[in-house]
Amino acid sequence: MGLSFGSVLRRGVLAGVLAGLAAALVIWLVVEPVIRRALVIEDRRSMHGGQSAPSGLLAHGGDEPLVSRAAQVVGGAVTSVVVGVAVGVIFAVVFAKVRDRLPGRGDFGRSLALASIGFAAVSLLPALKIPANPPAVGDPSTVGRRTMLYAVVLLLGVAAAVTVPQLDRHLGRRGMRSSTRWALDIAVVVVLIGLVAALVPGTPDQVPADVPADLVWDFRLASLAQLAALWLTLGVTFGLLLERDGRRSPLGERAGAGARVPA
To answer: Does the keyword Transmembrane helix apply (predicted)?
Structure first.
């Protein structure tokens, strides 16, 4: 007896909530201290009339922020949970559709495999091409261009994540050995990443001279750690929920057309 599609979705929501909370915890412990270091630089610019900042980065001359930093942190945590739920729902739907084609031993291994693919395609590739910058870096006039470039890289990453498995199945149907297929899969991934790196323009923002390089890299690594925490928690929690129910009832053979999916 397998789990209903609704049951799998509920597990995706629960895993998404926990993943969002894990990401919020990383924001609070790892990302927030780096942001506060960047805000010190912005305050210093404000005290000097914004003279050390490049065009477009001038501070607002000592004005009080409309929203306190504490409120921003709480809002960020809530947003993280909401995003986690949304990602968890999508994760559950995709898992139900491609479960039989995912590598890994058992549903726990398959869940981790899907989470790894999601992290690489949706988070890691865009972060490498259009890296995150702390508050003291970035021209407000380039927000639209940065967002567009990030979305393009994200979509290309998703396209690669869909294309490579289809290629692998096609080669498998033609009788190609697994080792050869894996080698070709890796080669295709490398080529696709190389094309993204070469053809998609990089971030249009320059790091101002008054921002230390270690601050920029600390923020980028912290932001990547936040995303990694979300995907890791999602993959582990979702897999554990399925494995727990799988031990209590026999696994279904295959997900139907949205009716029932394996436990």
So the answer is: yes
